[in-house]
């Protein structure tokens, strides 16, 4: 990378699964040196589905792009001592640990700061009281599964939204703590509860206030947009398209592009609602849909796309993962977010970099995840100054491991 925005920052990550790895990967893709420490043979997420034919976890590889990988025998005092030394290594931009694993014993903040007083430690917990939780147990309590679908049965979405949001909170918190340390010279432990990420999101979106102020609990409405016009329509070739009108300009664009402006305008007086407002269009959504459904049903998805091209209509096609990769130009090297990388154990894959673009720094190109233990020798030599002979002895003792 040329002049990455976080060049010089070093973070040690001891993690598994989604939240902390996403936080570390976000920093790594912006140029930080992120050293992920795993047990020899890999942590509990190292073989998680989906797998390549070789057995390589595409899940693990996708969450650990551009990091450095160190494999240590963390079940031994020697392995833990090396990990401690890497975490507490000197340097103005070092001494930072990111983890979502239990922070007890040798990996507790109080123990680690004995080796470096200004240590920054970012730690993800399940609940604010320290009890355990995962995305699936947090999501079921969020209210969203009860508002998803069309009936009374809750519907879990497959997106681990709270893990993803937590990972981005972790990276934000880490940068905030590092900036504060530059100002006051103090280390600090920063904790984040996964359930608090969910609770903050539900509150920030107004759903808690809606209950408190209006006594309203959002009902399940299928693919309809709550409080505005938006829903899916089936096309002649069996595909579906999502159509949304939040602003007045978007609403008028629908009538113009479909040629149905006059018919749509008749709905307002007939139902005594103001279609120039979001609330009015929401109240009249069934009648609006009845006018638009035949228009979509008479056209293929390609014909819908052609009709809406350049019209100002806010819409999008429903796609499965295969259609996303095959049909959507945004999910291709035409988008500077993506590049094809050679992922060890998997071969060429289309991989995203960081979605952020800085005007003063070139967008870093996507890079593959390392093989497990790929950087063990180099990191111990560069960060801890160990000699080739000393590193060889650690290999012979089974304390460290190289790539597998």
Detailed description of the structure:
One of its GO terms (molecular function) is transferase activity. This is CoA transferase. There is one protein chain. With 404 residues, the chain is of the alpha/beta class. The protein is built from 17 helices and twelve strands. It has a seven-stranded mixed β-sheet with strand order 6-5-4-1-2-3-12, with helices on both faces. A three-stranded antiparallel β-sheet has the order 7-8-9. It has a two-stranded antiparallel ribbon with strand order 10-11. Strand 4, helix 4 and strand 5 form a beta-alpha-beta unit. Helix 1 packs across helix 6 and helix 6 packs across helix 7. The protein is elongated. The protein starts with 9 loop residues before the first strand and ends with a strand.
Count of beta strands: 12
What is the radius of gyration computed over CA atoms, rounded to a whole number of angstroms? 26 Å
Could you give the order of the helices and strands?
Answer: EHEHEHEHEHHEHHEEHHHHHHEHEEHHE
Structural class: alpha/beta
Main β-sheet description: 7 strands, mixed
Give helix % range: 25-40%
Low-confidence stretches: none
First CA to last CA: what distance? 26 Å
How confident is the prediction overall: mean pLDDT? 97
InterPro entries: CoA-transferase_III, CoA-Trfase_fam_III, CoA-Trfase_III_dom3_sf, CoA-Trfase_III_dom_1_sf
Protein name: CoA transferase
Keywords: Transferase
GO molecular function: transferase activity
Labels describing this entry:
38% helix; 3-stranded antiparallel sheet; 404 residues; 17 helices; alpha/beta; 7-stranded mixed sheet
